[in-house]
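@channel sequence for tomorrow's demo:
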Amino acid sequence: MNFFQKQCEKMKIELNKIQLKQFETYYNFLSDYNKKINLTSITNKDEVYIKHFLDSISVSKFLDLKGKLIDIGTGAGFPGVPLKILNPNLDVTLLESSKKKTIFLEKLSSVLGSKYEIINSRAEESSKLELYREKFDICISRAVASLDILIELCIPFLKVKRTFIAMKGPSLDDEIAKSKSAMLNLNCKIKDIFKFELPMNFGKRNIVLIEKINKTPKKYPRSFSEIKSKRP
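structure tokens (generated this afternoon):
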């Protein structure tokens, strides 16, 4: 725990005792549950703390997180749950298509004493519903798909002039080049890119901030199969 706290401090992220305890509870519950259902291939404690927890909350170093946030393809809760632990006042919604994983997230909420909304659905289906379309201040996604696909899946959830955060690995330049058409068609543009490295040589990371500049055309998003075969 001291190691994790020190790594957070190096990134100028402050955690209190309650938050540190919640991360410990999160790790223990995740580790035990993962023995029954495959939630993550990363199980080593240091790796979970750095590759999942620290990586998830790293966005707070570059962007002030306020309002309503939706995490697309959250899996075992990354980055949405760590961000909720870091910022209890953040209104967090987790979207995950796997029913088994959403059951885990429901149980995790009770274990952590942390409240967030859970949607068991696919992004391209939920974003067409009035309840969720253009209702969020922040949309975030981590390790889900290539940037051009993510733009079509995520931008429809955002209010105009709000931000999509794409958490990406080192091969970003190629993804950006392939995303120009998607950004044009989905009425959005890159606002900023932040680069950093995780401790212990766990890899280079890119945080891409994409601003929605106008309403999303009604035809988007298309079905996932169509997005992959006929990219905008």
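heads up for whoever presents: The CA atoms of residues 188 and 212 lie 4 Å apart.
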